[in-house]
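Example 3.2
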Amino acid sequence: MFQKEYEDNMAIIKSVRGLTPQNGSGCWFAENAVIVGDVTMGANCTIWFSAVVRGDVNSITIGDNSNIQDNATIHGTYEKAATVIGSNVSIGHNAVIHGCTLEDEVLVGMGAIIMDGAIIKQGAIVAAGSVVLEGTVVEANTIYGGIPAKLIKRVEGKNREMITRIAGNYPKYASWFQENNVS
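Structure, written as tokens:
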């Protein structure tokens, strides 16, 4: 059985270069999530175990209802590439999101890497384990996969529902950890 002191741990939230992370209401951060510097997120976002959102060298903006799952890394490039993540975005376990733009309702699969200057347009899916190279534009409502990531097919039916379902499930999962809510 874990001692009470472990239950009371909070996420690591740090200011750097005079910039402090900001979040909207209803956000939840796992105890060992790291959120640093120039990070602004909307309402009802969740940052999961061992995820790192590091806005030390450039800004990171996250819309409403987005989730950054376990071990994901969100970062940018100094004086070159900020990171912008829209609303209702799900970023899978172990993904790396670096200096790119993810528009609304995007799903990034587990272990995917998205590099500087890439743009993932609304409703797109980046398949697990894929590498989206620098400057790539993933068109709206498409699935890209592989190394390097290429067009696989259009998002339709159950894939569209999956994007919505996954983004919708994460606030529910966070409610299971209610005692650590951050508002």
